[in-house]
């Protein structure tokens, strides 16, 4: 019977110690709160938190622990010092499908920063190393996305392997459009720089006759404007390194018809808050292309430039139909690999 009072005292003492520890944890946890986030109406709570900080230090000292406030991380804002980082996302292609438009539309978003020009690191300057590449990137804050656009990455054989070595988790964006329209746009750009360039029909078809009434030969798949429209070939190389979930295919046609909806897909893929809406665009009937009402760098409406939205030359319908027949099986394969049926004619 005599042991009962002693045992009770031990239990009471144990409970007392437990309560003291719980109180200590409460005070420590409370002291970690960032007091700067309290508004004036919580002033009394702020005073309560401050009052117990010194008590916590003294109590810890009595228990034989050294209490250094620097050992406890206070809640703080993310790093606000701009830092140059390797890209989190890349626009890898395809040429003359709308990559410039995609990048300019993405610049509207406050959490996206992109290199000012095509860097060509993974196709031309890979030997310079990743530190050289990093220096080409814009400074970004924590939580922002660093991007770069170089359409030639799409067809560079070594690019998938090199990009993977930089970051296996990088997100890839590829803009595609009807390959027939793309080839004509590609030719139009070249012809604007070289007025002496032969007609599109004479370049797209092998051994085509000069006269309009002559017989047309087979499609020249080695001609770059035609070859670039065979999207399935480069895609196979990218899929050997990256899962399909890491590649977003953007419709060049939808980027023109409904840019806000297509940009919403891009924002979702990049994990960005939905910011870009219809209010950012207006349709320029002269160019036949959406232009920006406002952007990060300009508060006035502007289009992408004089070289965007050029008028295409007249192309013989027979040649266009021949190209559509040529591309059809390649398009079907591309639909299968990408998981999207773009519905090109």
Q: Give the strand line-up of the largest sheet.
A: 3-5-2-6-7
The first-to-last residue Cα distance is 98 Å
Main sheet, how many strands, which sense, barrel?
5 strands, parallel
The succession of helices and strands, N to C, reads: HHEEHEHEEHEHHHHEHHEEH
Helix content: 40-55%
Provide a count of the helices.
Answer: 12
List keywords for this structure.
about 350 residues; alpha/beta; five-stranded parallel beta sheet; 12 helices
Describe, in short, the structure shown.
The chain has 345 residues and is an alpha/beta fold. It is built from twelve helices and nine strands.
Task: Provide structural commentary.
The strands form 3 sheets. Strands 3-5-2-6-7 form a 5-stranded parallel beta sheet. It has a two-stranded antiparallel sheet with strand order 1-4. It is elongated, with a radius of gyration of 31 Å. With 345 residues, the protein is of the alpha/beta class. Mean pLDDT is 83; it is low at 1-6, 31-53 and 59-76. It is built from 12 helices and 9 strands.
List the SSEs and their pairings.
Elements: H1 3-31, H2 43-62, E1 83-84, E2 89-93, H3 99-106, E3 112-114, H4 130-135, E4 139-140, E5 145-149, H5 159-166, E6 171-176, H6 179-193, H7 200-204, H8 224-227, H9 232-241, E7 247-251, H10 252-257, H11 259-270, E8 281-284, E9 289-292, H12 317-338
Parallel strand pairs: 2-5, 2-6, 3-5, 6-7
Antiparallel strand pairs: 1-4, 8-9
Helix pairs in contact: 1-2, 5-9, 9-12
